[in-house]
Amino acid sequence: MNGTVVCFGELLLRLSAPGRERLLQTPRLQVQIGGAEANVAVSLARLGHDAAMAGTVADNALGEAALGELRRHGVDTRRMRAAPGRMGLYFLAPGALQRPSEVLYDRADSAFARTPASAYDWDALLEGAAWLHLSGVSPALGAECAQATLDAARAARRRGVRVSFDGNFRGKLWQAWNGDAGAILRQIFAETDLLFADHRDIAVALGQTFAGEDHEAAVAAAAQAAFAAFPHLQRLACTQRQQRSVDHHHLSALLLTRAGGRERAPGYELAGIVDRIGTGDAFAAGVLHGLIDGMDDARALRFGLAAACLKHSVPGDFNLVGRAEIEALVEEAGFHVRR
């Protein structure tokens, strides 16, 4: 698999209430490493790709532990930098039945958020890269993070590196610094080849709403507008989630192309969900894997959806399933014990 996939973003410490407890119901928290872009890097590394992480962590034991966890899963961390400051945190209280999960962010003034855009030498960081993966979380963290994300996308375009971007719109993060989400996202979308987004993300970037008789029709209308507005954009993929309860969802997926192609992946019923955090990242990594590996669009979409579905069974941010397990679900191999 030629070329490295470079993922740029913030590594976070995830502090979760144990089991289905509420935060500090008992005086314990479980600590794991996560972050949207890191989740993609770990998935790709476990699927056999050369995956690298770029960004900034705190120059302390917490930052080193986070990097060590990435290395444990096969991610190249040589493009990471360490700087004085703190690690970003998020707290998770898992939901149950009709009580939704709750996430509290504590990432203001983290080492990543405080890093100036000029600290990243993108020509060096993208050396040997075939793809650059970004998400909408990074530019939402502040003006310097937004500029760094845009610089990365523009450098990738200049160097012939394909750009994958996951919308991951976080309105509250943008509001915290009065960031102009639409203007910044338009500039990033303009450099993107593969966009993980639905009609809501595109509505933010283009400043218009998209209606349809159902979710697919709205996404198709938005995709048509996005292909017209952004000449480099080749594919748009998204999932559709229907929630029966906190623990029971139905998940399907859709991929549209500039050439007018439309692929649908049949949905899965997900009952007894263990952890839905990072499932969108698992989907993005699965689709990326499929395209890099030479799958056609239909197969890549089914692979991405299967990866996302399996992530619902794995605690933590990272999707710790391998290619064989995903392929087995794509092929509907069943639930026999594998020996």
UniProtKB/TrEMBL annotation:
One of its GO terms (molecular function) is kinase activity. It comes from Vulcaniibacterium tengchongense. Residues 5-224, 273-316 form the Carbohydrate kinase PfkB domain. InterPro entries: Carb_kinase_PfkB-like, PfkB_dom, Ribokinase-like. CDD domains: KdgK (cd01166). Gene3D superfamilies: 3.40.1190.20. PANTHER family: 2-DEHYDRO-3-DEOXYGLUCONOKINASE_2-DEHYDRO-3-DEOXYGALACTONOKINASE, SUGAR KINASE. Pfam families: PfkB. This is 2-dehydro-3-deoxygluconokinase. Keywords: Kinase, Transferase. Transmembrane segments: none annotated. Belongs to the carbohydrate kinase PfkB family.
